[in-house]
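Do me a favour: review this protein, sequence plus structure tokens, and tell me how the chain folds. Record follows.
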Amino acid sequence: AAVPSGASTGIYEALELRAVEHINKTIAPALVSKLAMQEFMILPVGASSFRIGAEVYHNLKDATNVGDEGGFAPNILENKEALELLKAGYTDQVVIGMDVAASEFYRFTASAGIQVVGDDLTVTNPKRAASEKSCNCLLLKVNQIGSVTESLQACKLAQSNGWGVMVSHRSGETEDTFIADLVVGLCTGQIKTGAPCRSERYNQILRIEEELGSKSFRNPLAK
């Protein structure tokens, strides 16, 4: 029930909402959006360069807010609306990645042709994740695992189970470019390092590509 917080019962009196029902039906809907996804990411799987990802990113220029990792944080309420924003005219070359933070998504690994990337699960207990087939790709965060040696071991464990490996930064970390060298050295073919405006790692990958020349990795799905 709505109970006046003081002696006055006037229309401007602040109300103290004591019942849990008010929290569930009044407060929560006003504060929490309907998005079930933490992040929507662009994966230019058919690209031969960074251009496609950058163009999709710039297609979102009307969004006003920018998140911690350089991604746009527009005021949207539904998942479908977020997916519509990511359209930029490419077909069969760009796919959408979603950070859903859902413990139930492991069921998809056996029934659907999608990549399910394990985050905290693979850091805390990678052997259990592999044995239970909870996911099919490792999100490799060096500063979360603890050391480069342990990161290499985790990568080998994942690959020995037929998993993919995605090298990743962590929110709030420095501009150090080491993970760009790591993703090339491990030949994982996947990196998660924020939006193009956070360009340090992308520039390092471009420098590596320039140095390697014809020996550099080429996306087999590029058109």
The radius of gyration is 22 Å. The first strand starts at residue 2 and ends at 4.
